[in-house]
């Protein structure tokens, strides 16, 4: 069930509506697809996955709760956030997140921008989904972000903005796989593609001490690389990340 996001809004706030693209209702799928294609063209190849997920209820895949949101302001598409809750790891994964330039400076109560508000709503949704499944409070929303030296965002503007919204860097050596592994053939061709260095971090939902505990850091790494990308646990990218976690 979608959280009652209107309770997070003040009467003076812009007219925000959230639309969940799920359960076979594709009314807002094209708007979501258009924003992703325009703002994140490097991930447009994941539209097939998003379309497939949209055919089902959020809980259709055992161990996960999928959420695909389109945000509108005054009835016009303004941004998207696609994420999922990983039950066994007690965390959420932020997969696709983009705000159209015309709405990036739109402010809500307490000076929150639309992006900041959507992160807040995402954390509330993760907490509600965890409670519904009898799980502990999720550690937060884990995301991959372009590092300061990356060629897609050489000045690290997105990373700096995320930090303003509470983003916490995770002390792990992380690379982004080129695609989600769907079977042995995909696994075999992984070596033909480059893995892209990224910074892994989290919008926290619990105390920093809990997040930075080595066992939990390993859970967060595996949530993305093993549970989402389906890399084998023995893959070098998984082992490199796990080995980089300081023991304690």
> Which regions have little confidence, pLDDT < 50, spanning 5+ residues?
none
Strand content: 15-25%
Helix and strand content put the structural class at alpha+beta
Please tally the β strands and state the result.
8
Kindly report how far apart the N and C termini lie: 38 Å
Number of helices: 8
- Given the C-alpha coordinates, what overall shape results? globular
Overall average pLDDT: 95
Major β-sheet annotation: 8 strands, mixed
Compressed to H and E, one letter per element, the order equals: EHHEEEHEHEEHEHHH
What is the helix fraction of residues, given as a range? 25-40%
Rounded to an integer in angstroms, the radius of gyration calculated over CA atoms is 18 Å
Question: What does the model show?
Answer:
- Helix 7 packs antiparallel against helix 8 (236-243).
- Strands 1, 2, 3, 4, 5, 6, 7 and 8 form an eight-stranded mixed beta sheet that branches.
- The mean pLDDT is 95.
- The longest helix has 19 residues, at 114-132.
- It is globular and about 50 Å long.
- The protein is of the alpha+beta class and 248 residues long.
- The protein has helices spanning 29-39, 47-54, 114-132, 157-164, 184-188, 208-212, 214-228, 236-243, and strands at residues 16-20, 64-73, 76-86, 91-99, 140-145, 168-169, 174-176, 196-204.
Task: Outline the fold blueprint.
Layout: E1 16-20, H1 29-39, H2 47-54, E2 64-73, E3 76-86, E4 91-99, H3 114-132, E5 140-145, H4 157-164, E6 168-169, E7 174-176, H5 184-188, E8 196-204, H6 208-212, H7 214-228, H8 236-243
Parallel strand pairs: 4-5
Antiparallel strand pairs: 1-2, 2-3, 3-4, 5-8, 6-8, 7-8
